[in-house]
Amino acid sequence: MATRPVSSTLQAWELGIRLRQARRDLGLTATSVAKSVGIAPSNFSAIEAGKRRITASKLTQLAEIYELTEAERDLLQTLRGNAEQRNWWHDYSELYSEEFLRFLGIEAGASGVRVWSPIAVPGLLQTSEYARATIRAGSPYIKPVDVGPRLETRLARQALLEDEPRLRMDVLLGEAALRQKVGGPALGRQLDRLIEVCSRADSTVDLHVVPFAADAHPLIGGPLTMLSFDNVLLPDLVWQETAITGNLIDKPQVIRECSASFDEVFESVALDTARSLELVQQIRSELGATS
C-alpha cells in the first residue's frame, strides 16, 4: 500500500504557526518584526497564516530575532524546505481558486474528516461516472475541456482512503443524496460503491444516513466538512461550500458549534451504521439491476 506524501500546504501552515508563537512569546508585534526583516506587513501576516512562503535567509533572520535554539532553527528550516515541495494539486492551479487549492492541500494532510452532505455523495466517495455528472452540472461556466482535469482532481483526492495513514471519515448523508438520480444509471453503481467501501472489514469510513422521516436538526441547510489533524499544533478547520464558492473557516467558536451540531446529528438523529447500510441497500434494490 502506498504512503501518503507530505503536504506542502500543511508544512507551510505549521511553519507559520510556530513563527507566530515564537513572536508572541517575546511580546513582539507583527508590524515591528516585519519591518526589522524587510518584509511587507501583509506578506508577513500571510507567512504566519501559512499562505505565503518565506526564503531561507529571511527565516534565518527571524530565528535570530526570536532567539531560537539550534534544534528549533533546524525544524523550521525543514518545514520551510517541505513547504517548497510541489504536490499533485499544484498541477491544477489554473482551474481553481487559491482557496480551493489550499483546501486540497489541507485535506491531503488531514487525519480525519467529518462530512455533512445533504443532497450529494461526497467527492471522496464518488465513482468516476457520478463525479463526471456532478462536474458537468456544477456550473454553466465550466468549459467542456475542463471536465476531464476536474474529474482527475476529484479522483486523485480519493487516494487518501487508500494510502497510509488512511483518512478517517465520519459521513452524514441526507437520504436525498441516495435518491437523487445523478447521472441516471450511474446512481446505482454509486450506491454499490458506498456499500462496498463502508462494508470492508478494515474500512475507515463510518456512514450514517439522516432519513426523510427525521425531524428538524441542527445541520439543516448546506453541506460542510470539518478537518482534523494528528499534529496538536494544527487546530480543526471547517470547509463550507456553496454552489459557486468555498471557504476555509478557522474561527474557534464557529468550529465548536459545527462540531457540536455534527455530533448531535451523527449520534442522535441519523440512523446508525448498520441501519444506514440497510437503507442504502434497500434504495439500491429499488433501482433494479439495470442501474
Automatic annotation (TrEMBL):
One of its GO terms (molecular function) is DNA binding. InterPro entries: Cro/C1-type_HTH (IPR001387), DUF5753 (IPR043917), Lambda_DNA-bd_dom_sf (IPR010982). Pfam families: DUF5753, HTH_31. Signal peptide: none annotated. SUPFAM superfamilies: lambda repressor-like DNA-binding domains. Residues 19-73 form the HTH cro/C1-type domain. This is Helix-turn-helix protein. The lineage of its organism: Bacteria, Bacillati, Actinomycetota, Actinomycetes, Pseudonocardiales.
